[in-house]
Amino acid sequence: MLPVPVLTSIILTTDALGRRRGAPEPWRRAVRAAVPGCAREAFAPLLQPGATLIPDCLVPFTSTDRLSMASAVERLDAVLPGSLLEELTEIEQSATLPPSWRPVIDDPRRWLCSYTATIKDAWTGIAGIWQLAGGLLGREQERIGRAVVSGCLDVVLSSLPNCRYADGWLSFDDPHPTSHRLAERTLVLAPMLTGDRSVAANFSLPGVVWIGYPLPGIGRLLDGAGRPAMPPDRLLTALLGPTRALVLHALREPLTMGELAAVLRCAPSAATYHCGRLAAAGLVTRERYGREVRARRSVRGDELVDVLGRP
């Protein structure tokens, strides 16, 4: 896991200027107050609906090295207009380049100056929030570390917005379905202070894949001024569904089907069914004691709750 502040600055600015992806309104206001009136024009190519194609040179995060905001700005200042035009030409040859990029092609030098200046100004409104998020970023690093050690990284990847991971393939469902094989490439997860519908990824770099995703628990940074904090089982619920997430939480100690049914407020047969599905996934174990069957979380179930149960 590698926090990269420039990703937050870029994605949160697009949200604030019109590409709504669920960012808290206080953050959007902070960005709009920090950027000049021409910012919307500078970010126009990034505000179009659908999947956004951004040239690599405009997102100066290309390796597994920790990149400070100051270093990112230096890299953006060093981007040559010719390099931007070259990347846009490659994109146009492999896909339809949206008309919003035409002004960039007409005067790339002017547009680069406006784009970089907007990111710098936006950061003045975001830097304080990023600093407050230091504790959450540290906690997320521990969560990802536990997922790697316990073999649950596949679950973490599948919990990202509109993403699914299986058999080495990472698929994005919205707005245009795509699939990418991670193979032996280094995976870099970069949490961002953005809305819960934001995800950014780059699969074009040799040997490296990076994915930017919403930092879990960002609602806690709002001090009651915006959206409420994320519920503790949000990610687990997104993965398993509300009933089975509740079952997994309840089975921190052994329960009979009758006891579990009382927790779920359902019939014992429904509790048995959900336990069976979780057992098939290796998340629950069941043992018979006389006429009763008791269920409890397996080691993998414990690890999953530890990884996803506390955002």
SSE layout and pairings?
Layout: H1 5-16, H2 25-34, H3 39-42, H4 69-77, H5 81-94, H6 102-106, H7 108-132, H8 134-150, H9 153-158, E1 163-166, E2 169-172, E3 178-181, E4 186-192, E5 200-202, E6 208-214, H10 234-240, H11 242-250, E7 255-256, H12 257-264, H13 268-280, E8 284-289, E9 292-297, H14 299-308
Parallel strand pairs: 4-6
Antiparallel strand pairs: 1-2, 2-3, 5-6, 7-9, 8-9
Helix pairs in contact: 1-2, 1-7, 2-7, 4-7, 8-14, 10-11, 11-13, 12-13
Secondary-structure-based class equals alpha+beta
Spans of at least 5 consecutive residues whose pLDDT stays below 50 are 223-233
Helix content range: 40-55%
Distance between the first and last residues' Cα: 15 Å
Strand content: 5-15%
Count of individual beta strands: 9
Total count of helical runs of at least 4 residues: 14
Mean pLDDT: 84
Whole-number radius of gyration? 22 Å
